[in-house]
Design brief:
74% helix, transmembrane helix, single chain, membrane, mainly alpha, 5 helices, transmembrane, 2% strand, CmpB_TMEM229, globular, 172 residues, two-stranded antiparallel sheet
Length: 172
């Protein structure tokens, strides 16, 4: 269980780094990404766990991982966008200017990128991270994971409280 939680944090952090770089380069300035204050994007953590859990058995079959990863992450991104918009009355991203998008929630360019990232995750990144985590003594793994969990819960709770207050102000 602690391994899955630690994987979630690691991939949420790596996703935050990638997305921050991806958005900061064209803006030519630092663009902090993610809805919570800390340096993580939970959608990447959930996406990575989703991909690892369902696609690790296809390791070595890059085409299958790419296609299924593209589909799975696109569904996750669409569903997440829809839910966040309904809950907070705000669009968190909008691909409507991109070609081949679906309601601005997903687009072919990003879906292709996520399919490619799924291949990288299954074939290279996850095996390496798993090997590193296995070397960490279980008692230390538990302490690290619990510490990160406490910070994550506080950060997420405060973020959602602030977003809920903002939503109420907007609707009133």
């Amino acid at each position: 269980m602690y391994q899955f939680m630690l994987w979630f944090y690691i991939y949420s952090f790596l996703g935050w780094i990638c997305e921050t770089i991806y958005c900061s380069i064209p803006a030519k300035k630092f663009v902090k990404r993610g809805m919570i204050k800390g340096p993580i994007c939970p959608i990447y953590g959930f996406g990575a766990l989703f991909v690892i859990t369902l696609l690790d058995k296809y390791r070595g079959n890059i085409f299958i991982i790419f296609i299924l990863g593209l589909i799975m992450t696109s569904i996750l991104e669409f569903f997440t966008s829809f839910c966040l918009e309904k809950v907070f009355n705000r669009k968190w991203w909008d691909y409507s200017k991109n070609k081949l998008n679906i309601k601005g929630r997903v687009c072919l360019l990003n879906s292709t990128m996520f399919g490619s990232l799924s291949v990288c995750l299954i074939e290279f990144i996850h095996p390496m991270i798993s090997m590193i985590i296995i070397e960490v003594p279980i008692y230390l793994l538990n302490k690290i994971t619990r510490g990160i969990l406490a910070i994550f819960i506080i950060d997420t709770g405060l973020t959602f409280l602030n977003l809920y207050k903002t939503r109420k102000e907007i609707l009133n």
